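Morning F.,

Quick status update on the modeling queue. The single chain you submitted on Monday has been processed. Sequence for confirmation:
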Amino acid sequence: MSNQLLKGKRGIIFGALNNQSIAWKVAQRAHEEGATFVLTNAPIAMRMGEINELAAETGSQVIPADATKIEDLENLVTQAQEILGGKIDFVLHSIGMSPNVRKGKHYTENDYNYYGQTMDVSAMSLHKTLATLYKHDAMNEWGSIVALSYIAAQRTFPDYGEMADAKSLLESFARSFGYHYGKKKHVRVNTISQSPTKTTAGSGVGGFDAFFNYADKMSPLGNASADACAEYCVSLFSDYTRMVTMQNLFHDGGFSFTGISTDLMDGFRDAAGE
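Structure tokens below.
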């Protein structure tokens, strides 16, 4: 059901790879809610993905951009405003890559060249995006910028590796830049700490299926789906959350504040023969 929450709003959506992507779901939901936007991803990701299908479905244009390169971001911001006919109201940052995790390197034996790539793609790209938007005064007042994070930024999940460090940095950027953007332009900057989600990137983490099931049993509401995350993003893009900024917002069915669940305890009791 559409309430046209984003009618008249213009946006930029990073990171839609395929129909499993949270960014893909956000684009679909934002379109349903009346927004217009451009889609963007790195050229290599675009070759791997299906972004042109999403563009056709949502009536959007695709602008290739490597979010680690300032010149690409400046071109993206300029073109987006030209295509959409004005300044930007919302931005979704849904970008992540971890060569060490992908190549199975243990956290204690990280390749530091790979580590630098992870930080640049998964975290620094947000700062560069914020800085480009800020420098070019590309956001409307009371605009909203949302980046996707994960609870491994606060707690240790051994198989998540260097991505935990990247997400910690990402959340820090949202707080620090969020202050300056709020003071200058009333622009909000937040992160969403999402449940484990069966995306192409998420499924690449070792032991993902087992952890997905664990989180689902731990969370009183179960894991939040990609579709539910998209709806949450739309609410943060809307005018109903104008006073929410610099926050890391848990969207995880209650996982982050649950110590133990009865479902898990029952499993332990069964294993112990109680």
